[in-house]
Design brief:
Elements lengths: L1 H5 L5 H32 L6 E4 H18 L3 E5 L4 E4 L1 H17 L6 E9 L2 E7 L22 H4 L4 H13 L3 E6 L5 E8 L4
Parallel strand pairs: 2-4
Antiparallel strand pairs: 1-3, 4-5, 5-7, 6-7
Length: about 200
């Protein structure tokens, strides 16, 4: 904020905007830092995994972002069955929130995001499909690297840190996370978690 005000070339309105952007960015970083802190605490001990259904995870994550989606007139269609998986509920919900948050950021107004669950072999899967700008082929191999930033249109928000947190959490679940994108008509993030043996 101070730096902006010292630059006499800025009008008061412009200075206020710079400060507002800085504050918003600080809040985002604070949230991500908290996520990393939780992760580092968990890394020392094995996270206890308990049976929880795909439906519960999907519902909880969707409720956390629904206001954000509505603000952009984005519809979230959720269809996740009552399939039990082995998970640390809180951290897996955080993963789905990260994926939905990115989908909302990079989707146009009045579009639809689909959150779909299924049983596939020995895994429960959750897919987040958006109708956004897609991810360029050149960026796909790097999408889960911390601080990786794709082309200019995405770099303002930077999604590397959130996705690197997601990947670490999924690894702790003995699962997998992947992305499919045509580069033009949206992206699909797929999370696979081992089924609960009840």
């Amino acid at each position: 904020g101070e730096v902006a005000l010292r630059d006499s070339g800025l009008t008061l309105a412009e200075a206020k905007q710079v400060i507002a952007n800085s504050v918003e960015q600080a809040h985002k970083l604070e949230g991500l830092a908290e996520g990393l802190l939780q992760l580092s605490r968990r890394r020392d001990k094995t996270t206890p995994l308990r049976p929880v259904s795909l439906e519960e995870i999907a519902n909880e994550a969707m409720n956390a972002v629904i206001a954000q989606a509505q603000a952009k007139h984005i519809t979230i269609e959720e269809n996740a069955p009552h399939v039990p998986i082995m998970a640390d509920r809180a951290s897996l919900v955080q993963v789905v929130i990260i994926l939905l948050d990115n989908a909302i950021k990079y989707s146009p107004k009045y579009s639809t995001i689909r959150l779909e669950g299924a049983r596939e072999g020995a895994y429960g899967t959750l897919r987040v499909r958006d109708e956004g700008t897609g991810i360029a082929d050149v960026d796909l191999p790097h999408i889960f690297e911390r601080f990786y930033r794709a082309d200019v249109s995405r770099s303002k928000q930077g999604y590397g840190l959130g996705l690197s947190i997601a990947q670490k959490i999924i690894a702790q679940h003995n699962g997998a996370i992947a992305v499919q994108s045509t580069g033009k008509t949206g992206s699909v993030f797929v999370v696979k978690i081992p089924l609960a043996k009840l």
